[in-house]
Amino acid sequence: MKLLLENWREYISEEKDIDKVAKAVIYDGDEVLLLKRSNYMEKHSGAWDLPGGHLVEGEDIEEGLIREVEEETGLKIADPVELFSRGNTTFYKAVMPEGSVEISNEHTEYKMVSIDNIDDQELSTKYRDAVKEALK
């Protein structure tokens, strides 16, 4: 019973995700960072993903983007530049920061992909559009 109450207390104090999403095209020259979705996440279109995710209630979109990117990759991006919004997702671009990528359990691997090869990736159309917009 004590464990149940502790879990419930943790659940009700947890910040709630909202429907707003921020994603980043993180680039180094003409290459961008892609993350491979874990099996849990493959229900979405495309096996590859851009770093970012859902904001929490009351969170500034850029702060949420920076938090999500760090949670998913271990990278701390600076000065993201807004590209465009599509549906509930806002896309940004950011320069690849110093440091190594350390992916979370939401993804199984990562790779850097040249803009010349982006059309060959299993990536959703809106993510592909964001990459092309960021590196045009």
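^ that was protein a. below is b, sequence first then the tokens
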Amino acid sequence: MDQWAELSKKKRKVHVFLSLGTSKDVQEACREHRQLTRIMVRNQLCTAASPFAWDGVLSDAAEQILLLHRGHTSLDEQHAQLARWAGYCDHHEHNPFNFKALEVVLRKLLQLQSSAEKSFGEKEVGHSTLYFENAN
């Protein structure tokens, strides 16, 4: 909806822009993100001097498209990074490229996973450590 709405008391108008959408199933959104990543990798490799010279970094435009897709489908960072890893692996399976590119994506995924597994904040861990130190 994109229209001007009149305010009743002050006889002024306000511009209203309303966009509604539906959130997709996580599996479907991941599948789409994976496919989109494969397309971005293929495009990046077409512009690279050699598949084995590519460092795995996507162009700013490709990153922006993936970010917009992630926002549009409401994918969280973990699912998006997992889909990215799968997209890189899919492309590498049929059209090999530099393994370092896979390493970059895998490191990001593992860092994200390790930070998500922390169940206590630093303050709680610090207090627990002090408690046990004082108990001895």
